[in-house]
Amino acid sequence: MGLTIGVDIGGTKIAAGVVDEEGSILETCKVPTPQATDELTEAIADAVRTVGADHHVEAVGIGAAGYVDEKRATVLFAPNIDWRHEPLKDKVEQRVGLPVVVENDANAAAWGEYRFGAGQGHSDVICITLGTGLGGGIIIGNKLRRGRFGVAAEFGHIRVVPDGLLCGCGSQGCWEQYASGRALLRYARQRAFATPENATVLLSLGDGTPEGIEGRHISQAARQGDPVAIDSFRELARWAGAGLADLASLFDPSAFIVGGGVSDEGELVLDPIRKSFRRWLVGNQYRPHAQVLAAQLGGKAGLVGAADLARQG
Amino acid sequence: MGLTIGVDIGGTKIAAGVVDEEGSILETCKVPTPQATDELTEAIADAVRTVGADHHVEAVGIGAAGYVDEKRATVLFAPNIDWRHEPLKDKVEQRVGLPVVVENDANAAAWGEYRFGAGQGHSDVICITLGTGLGGGIIIGNKLRRGRFGVAAEFGHIRVVPDGLLCGCGSQGCWEQYASGRALLRYARQRAFATPENATVLLSLGDGTPEGIEGRHISQAARQGDPVAIDSFRELARWAGAGLADLASLFDPSAFIVGGGVSDEGELVLDPIRKSFRRWLVGNQYRPHAQVLAAQLGGKAGLVGAADLARQG
Amino acid sequence: MGLTIGVDIGGTKIAAGVVDEEGSILETCKVPTPQATDELTEAIADAVRTVGADHHVEAVGIGAAGYVDEKRATVLFAPNIDWRHEPLKDKVEQRVGLPVVVENDANAAAWGEYRFGAGQGHSDVICITLGTGLGGGIIIGNKLRRGRFGVAAEFGHIRVVPDGLLCGCGSQGCWEQYASGRALLRYARQRAFATPENATVLLSLGDGTPEGIEGRHISQAARQGDPVAIDSFRELARWAGAGLADLASLFDPSAFIVGGGVSDEGELVLDPIRKSFRRWLVGNQYRPHAQVLAAQLGGKAGLVGAADLARQG
Amino acid sequence: MGLTIGVDIGGTKIAAGVVDEEGSILETCKVPTPQATDELTEAIADAVRTVGADHHVEAVGIGAAGYVDEKRATVLFAPNIDWRHEPLKDKVEQRVGLPVVVENDANAAAWGEYRFGAGQGHSDVICITLGTGLGGGIIIGNKLRRGRFGVAAEFGHIRVVPDGLLCGCGSQGCWEQYASGRALLRYARQRAFATPENATVLLSLGDGTPEGIEGRHISQAARQGDPVAIDSFRELARWAGAGLADLASLFDPSAFIVGGGVSDEGELVLDPIRKSFRRWLVGNQYRPHAQVLAAQLGGKAGLVGAADLARQG
Known about the structure:
homotetramer, alpha/beta, Nucleotidyltransferase, domain 5, 9 helices, 37% helix, globular, transferase (chains A, B, C, D)
């Protein structure tokens, strides 16, 4: 199969791109994400038609946040869109006249990294995405593993603290409450509130109050040596690394790939994650260690991965 | 392939059995487990020769506690035996003249249940073994998944309580410290110590002191309505079920199989595990639920599973 | 000294009462609580003048939520009112022409119970108030102990779960997030959401949804045997009792008094609290045990206590 | 009253000293601690007679680990000696012919620091002793507060981690499992085991293995910049400071005094404790902060305090 289209449905933008067999994006377009579900379907179809107009395209892969069923056809539940048992595959196929597969967005990103990014050459890879929340994908034996019902790899919602922080999912102590962009922001604000004298750089980047601190300030302040900013990354890394150690006990991959906006900081966050991983890895002196790698495709991993999954059929 | 031999190396006994393609055991023998590693190899070979003497056997599968490498040849580390990078496959093959595969014992038991027990008909199954500790095995897409280096499915050592109980593995807060036979015993003794008036049956079954309580007393007392015994099972189930919910977020199987000595109590322990599982299952109203099933093969699962894995080659 | 006035500043009402030396309330009045701090001072003064018009009153005690300084004059901080270093004693004295003492409301309630309620005859008493949040007061050696700076006995904000639930105070894992009316409501709603089939009574009392459950429904449902309602009280009691055990290790009182709206349910909540207390009491077989008693004065404890503290000067 | 004798019963040595009204020790003696309780009583009496032979002594104060009743006469329970309801006051009085008071050793040390050490000038002081375990004492309103039954101030056994580490007291998650000399040693060994490359100094001071690390190595290595040693102190301080913040919420003293062997390291441990204290202090911007001070009397605090308590009668 030749060219396919990948679609990445984000909270504010829908990105679509024509992708070749090497994972290269030949053409892209972006449109705003409509709120109404009807308009959303149309917008997806429009984006596909627009970007594919000048290419011979054979299939479409759509990455969306939420639970997607094992047939890769129906979105069972989406956290940010009013989809409940939404037959997205059928609706888009009717509109664009091409075979469509729907995939969880973190699964698609994991597949993209496995095929064309940091995971190349590894047969068993676990990807985690540290964005606003924490998502992930599982590759075992060179295949994406989606679970029996399609909803595997919901890493963000394993419980790491009994009776811990409330999570949007209704549970408590979920990993993503401790290892994600949102958690990083909470760490920074709490520390700046408690010990402002250690957060002078960080506070000066915002409006001088803890509430004024934003995610981008934390990395900027950390690079300037702000103690609270550095400590906030370390706290994030403590939880991220300990969770990877758990995943190593469960999956024993040869590589972990860490993606998402938080990982854009590179070694600032990866180095402490590696240390924490090693600290908590059970049996670490008796077993081969998985590598902990930075993702390579950045924000394009989902689009590229979705396109490639559509190619695989 | 026809008949194979399965070997289960326990702490006190080595069990060997000739197993056919239906998982039936045609003949078995048991010998004591020697302490010295040299004698242990001999004892395994003797058991194989003894039990196989009157059968045309084509391969041998050995289940052992510990880390087994991805080639299923070398025991990297065993918790109770002085094996470190022990080339067990080669040593036994030299002695018995048959192809040998070595497998982690909990993996072997999981495979046994998948093939001939509670897991029949499921393609994606997670088994947990609640014995003295907590072990497990992963079947995805009808295959045993051992990880890239052979040491996956170490369920007992995921961290469920940060800064929690010390574990023999050197870490803290491992799941098996909260959900295992040893944990059940601790629950019962602690509660009998704190509130002996609620443990009259339980205490009467031992020597009257909390230390005199043994595992078998707890199930007996629970069946007689002893509040501390019942509450101890409930506490175990709280942790077991919450952990299964985490595994559902990760693996999304269609069935969990609960085996090991603790599960011999049947619904006394399975019913509260199911309730706790459901209580903590993230997204439980939007997703199909995995079944939580009792293991069917009892203590023979490991032997039968090892034999069958040898048959698969 | 003869009659004094006690004032209890609540979120919606200010209650004032003339109290005699036996703790009897001779006359009361209630006025709405104004939002603006200026009007609030006036409203307090008005209430004092109104209720005291026909009595020979010698002093005024005011109970207010928040930090009150050690001179019992200034409110350093109030959680629900815009008071920061508010010289409340001076302002009210100027308006009413009587000596005024200001006291933390939970301290005042503790003193009321010690003098005229469940604490009579005990020299060392710890009171906890399970209301919306969790407050308390300390009596040691027949004296109210307010700390060196006036802000002792903030029981609700000791950390019982590291990395636990966010608290309005900016910290995490505070006791009042696990043992209070608000916590009880969370327990009930979470459980009704996860296992609605065990909450049929509870759900039927509200609008059929977890969000429709209110505090009063939980006790009503518990009395009708609703499993989720009963389990929610048990969870509350688990945390309340474990916290009392900690307070016993610290203060070693002869009695704990449990007040506040949650305790209005009497033995429904006190019995499991006592069991949990005993379960977690360190050294419980070697030491005399404090009694765990229900408060006797109900919602009047704060007013009566404030009046009596004013009398003591 | 003039001179009194203080006795400090340690695990290996009994120290006795004649102490004047200024807290100065005029003469001391040490004898080994016998195992048998009868011989122990004799040894205490001998030490008193020996040290007091050349002085006009008016009373004796004995500090012992364990629960001492409110009459300061009977040891209800001792963790390391076979005393259960031991009438120690009567037994020693009969032998030495002087009035005797028995006091919990950590209480005695707290009193010593309050009277003659770091606590001078403070009316409300909380002392914690970071030795092998964690003990403490409470001074409120210039008086030692022992609780209604004599067993207050058992700081080491408040629960700081639900389902946490087992404690010798039979409970789990006790503060002394996270903040004490024993905890510090565990932190160092665990970290040296997991990441030996960060513990080269620390490991070189012992026998090269984690088990060979002893307490004194950790401070020595920390002063030489060993990352694991420094991190171990920081972890200890994290827990110590967070616990002090809880004690501030409860007691609101004007000073905390940190004593015990761990505190001998001075600012190496006190500085991070202060930071952690401030980080976790609830309402820290609205309230006066207690000082966190180093103890001044070292290992003599208990003896001097016991002597002074005997003087107070």
